[in-house]
Amino acid sequence: MKKALLAAATLLCAPLSAQAATDTGPMRFVMIPKAVHPWFDKANNGAQAAAALLSKATGRQITVEYRAPQTADVSTQNDIIERAIATHPDGLILDLLDEKGNRATMQEAVEEKIPMTVFDSLPPEGMNITAVGADFCEQGTLAAERLAKLIGNKGEVAIMMGVPTAPNHALRARCELKVFSKYPDIKVVATGIDNDSIETAQKQASAIMQAHPDLAGWVACDAAGPVGIGQAIRESGKVGKVKEVGLDNLNDMLQLIRDGVVDSSASSRPEMQGYWAVIAAWQKALGQQTPKNIDTGIDIITKKTLSK
Amino acid sequence: MSPETSPAPAPASGAQLPPPPSLADRIKTVAANPLCGVVVALVVIFVLSCLLSAHFLTAFNMKIIARSLAFVGLVTIGQAILMILGELDLSVGAIGGLSGVAGGLFMVQFGLDPWLSLVLCLALGTACGLLNGVLITQLRLHSLVLTIGMAGVYGGANLVLTKGVAITGIPGAISFLGRGMMFGLPVPFVILLVCLAIVSFVMLRTPLGRYVYAIGSNKAAARMLGIRVDAIRICAFASAGFLSALAGIVMVARLGTAQPSIGDTWVLAPIAAAVIGGVATTGGLGSPFGAVLGAVIIGIIENVIVLFGISPYWQSIVSGGIVVAAISFDSVARRYFNREA
């Protein structure tokens, strides 16, 4: 994949070579995710890889500064965005917590003529901003459909809702519920809230499995939830009896799939999102047109795909 | 700014005037002021920030520091009043969040006039604070324990009302409160200054303020003096609730949506700010002005952490370290002055 990305970036560089040759000063981008979280660290890895590759390809020093809020709170994120605007970077790469709540602050960036790119989220309506990411609804739908198939389209299932205030978690939950409602023999008997904490997810999942001994399967709406659920399944000795289809590709998640505790995971591609967000931001900074959406797709990770 | 700094009584008629104080005496007098330390720290941090970051001393950056200070600053004033009284309220953030989303509901779902909604939202915050005060005084509960529980109640009510989803479509009529400028300053900051002026006047120039300090110094003695201790404690909790609600609704005006997460970060920072600003955790000492200066220090540190590009994984260590340093300094300084006395 790296080779393909390198080739793509080289192609992107080609039409800009004249401009790049005349302007060789350093370029600085600031990346602000939703919060401190391993998923965003992976996105940052992709962003740093893109910066390194662009530096090599263009001969300009291109850096990405990663500034994550300590908590997933819109006002905290707005504060960090404003402080980043104060440093006048060449571009902002944002994972918005709430496009409406972030709008006023993003307007300040527009007034300061700082181009923006968003990843893993949608930009506010009416703003000409490239969005890099996967379809959250599709991700939830794929996970729920796979679980339905695993349990033979019947039985009791539960959903771990993630952070109830996070729009992407809420959207995945809605789409998962929509899938299950298509199957008359599948009943959603419980929903938990883990607030994107593995420990909370484990406690909630253990309690729900105690209350519903016939539970057949789990899906989740965030990255931490499915890890906690997997640990609870293992602790309660229900490996194989209770099926789980997780989300995303945290290391713990991958290990649970390797161990056979979790069947699979519908995973977005954080490294790729970070990578393409930097590419788009860089092009925007050079005054190039960028696409409205860059869909980085969803992987279904299974024990088989991991062994390849 | 605290009562112990009030002017000395005039000498009796015919008595010999004392010699004018020397420069050393004047310096000692200034250094003895409880606010001296925090002002010196603020100046040092400000100058260092100016020297180390070219982006710090810009009009845009000063504007964002002032505006973000306003929200924590309002909650800090309320918390400082309670701490001077010897109490603590850990539900102020939850009250701010609940009041903010309630204001959003009044405006969007019930279609009420935005300004009426604002008044109702402030009334709700005051009522929450009042309830805290009544439960603490009437059931003889420790404020720390009670307000931990009430934070859960108010936070839960917030989730019940919103189902965790932000309320959008806030009328533009109140956006001025959060986004506007007045006299070249962000409106939230102007609101903070007005509230600080009013509270400082009440605390330092009225009997009610003196009673608060008296209760904080020695509750039993204050009761023996005939001060209505419980009524004043209830009043203080209601004031903290009002100020939290004000911060909540101004934040709603700022964001243009009523986020259920409003107030989540308003618990630790105001306490830290008050302690840094010279408010004793045991009560009876300090001032709301000092507490807001403490909030300014925290605000500047949070600002420069981002300007310098410090790793997010180090940010908690830095801010937590400042809190521990401030509390330790408070404790050591009080032990030193007690020994001197």
From TrEMBL, chain A:
<comment type="similarity">
    <text>Belongs to the bacterial solute-binding protein 2 family.</text>
</comment>
<dbReference type="InterPro" id="IPR050555">
    <property type="entry name" value="Bact_Solute-Bind_Prot2"/>
</dbReference>
<protein>
    <submittedName>
        <fullName>Ribose ABC transporter substrate-binding protein</fullName>
    </submittedName>
</protein>
<dbReference type="GO" id="GO:0030288">
    <property type="term" value="C:outer membrane-bounded periplasmic space"/>
</dbReference>
<dbReference type="Pfam" id="PF13407">
    <property type="entry name" value="Peripla_BP_4"/>
</dbReference>
<dbReference type="GO" id="GO:0030246">
    <property type="term" value="F:carbohydrate binding"/>
</dbReference>
<dbReference type="InterPro" id="IPR025997">
    <property type="entry name" value="SBP_2_dom"/>
</dbReference>
<dbReference type="InterPro" id="IPR028082">
    <property type="entry name" value="Peripla_BP_I"/>
</dbReference>
<feature type="domain" description="Periplasmic binding protein">
    <location>
        <begin position="30"/>
        <end position="288"/>
    </location>
</feature>
<keyword id="KW-0732">Signal</keyword>
<feature type="signal peptide">
    <location>
        <begin position="1"/>
        <end position="20"/>
    </location>
</feature>
From TrEMBL, chain B:
<feature type="transmembrane region" description="Helical">
    <location>
        <begin position="231"/>
        <end position="253"/>
    </location>
</feature>
<keyword id="KW-1133">Transmembrane helix</keyword>
<feature type="transmembrane region" description="Helical">
    <location>
        <begin position="182"/>
        <end position="204"/>
    </location>
</feature>
<dbReference type="GO" id="GO:0022857">
    <property type="term" value="F:transmembrane transporter activity"/>
</dbReference>
<feature type="transmembrane region" description="Helical">
    <location>
        <begin position="31"/>
        <end position="52"/>
    </location>
</feature>
<keyword id="KW-0812">Transmembrane</keyword>
<feature type="transmembrane region" description="Helical">
    <location>
        <begin position="141"/>
        <end position="161"/>
    </location>
</feature>
<feature type="transmembrane region" description="Helical">
    <location>
        <begin position="265"/>
        <end position="285"/>
    </location>
</feature>
<feature type="transmembrane region" description="Helical">
    <location>
        <begin position="115"/>
        <end position="135"/>
    </location>
</feature>
<dbReference type="GO" id="GO:0005886">
    <property type="term" value="C:plasma membrane"/>
</dbReference>
<dbReference type="Pfam" id="PF02653">
    <property type="entry name" value="BPD_transp_2"/>
</dbReference>
<keyword id="KW-1003">Cell membrane</keyword>
<keyword id="KW-0472">Membrane</keyword>
<dbReference type="InterPro" id="IPR001851">
    <property type="entry name" value="ABC_transp_permease"/>
</dbReference>
<protein>
    <submittedName>
        <fullName>ABC transporter permease</fullName>
    </submittedName>
</protein>
<feature type="transmembrane region" description="Helical">
    <location>
        <begin position="64"/>
        <end position="84"/>
    </location>
</feature>
